[in-house]
């Protein structure tokens, strides 16, 4: 899997979990102290998500970090 596909799959996973919790992108961004535009880029797979930010997102979503990156 190339890195762009990986970024997209992780972004899709974040979006899937967020939607399953009836949370808006704006709400998730606010919980993570991110700009909404940044959260949009993450979910679209247009940015290389740092482990620190992935951890913030996992906490905000109430899931383990490994759930966000388990995309294979």
Automatic annotation (TrEMBL):
Domain HTH cro/C1-type: 14-68
InterPro entries (UniProt xref): Cro/C1-type_HTH, Lambda_DNA-bd_dom_sf, TransReg_Diox_bact_type
This protein's UniProt keywords: DNA-binding
Keyword Ligase part of the UniProt annotation: no
GO CC terms in record: cytosol
CDD domains on file: HTH_XRE
Gene Ontology MF term list: DNA binding; DNA-binding transcription factor activity
Annotated Gene3D superfamilies: lambda repressor-like DNA-binding domains
Coiled-coil boundaries: none
Name this polypeptide is given: Helix-turn-helix domain-containing protein
Organism: Bacteroides muris
């Amino acid at each position: 899997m190339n890195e762009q596909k990986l970024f997209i799959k992780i972004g899709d996973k974040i979006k899937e979990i967020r939607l399953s919790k009836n949370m808006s992108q704006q709400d998730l961004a606010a919980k993570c102290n991110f700009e909404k535009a940044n959260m949009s880029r993450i979910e679209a797979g247009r940015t290389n998500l740092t482990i620190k930010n992935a951890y913030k997102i996992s906490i905000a979503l109430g899931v383990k970090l490994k759930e966000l990156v388990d995309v294979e």
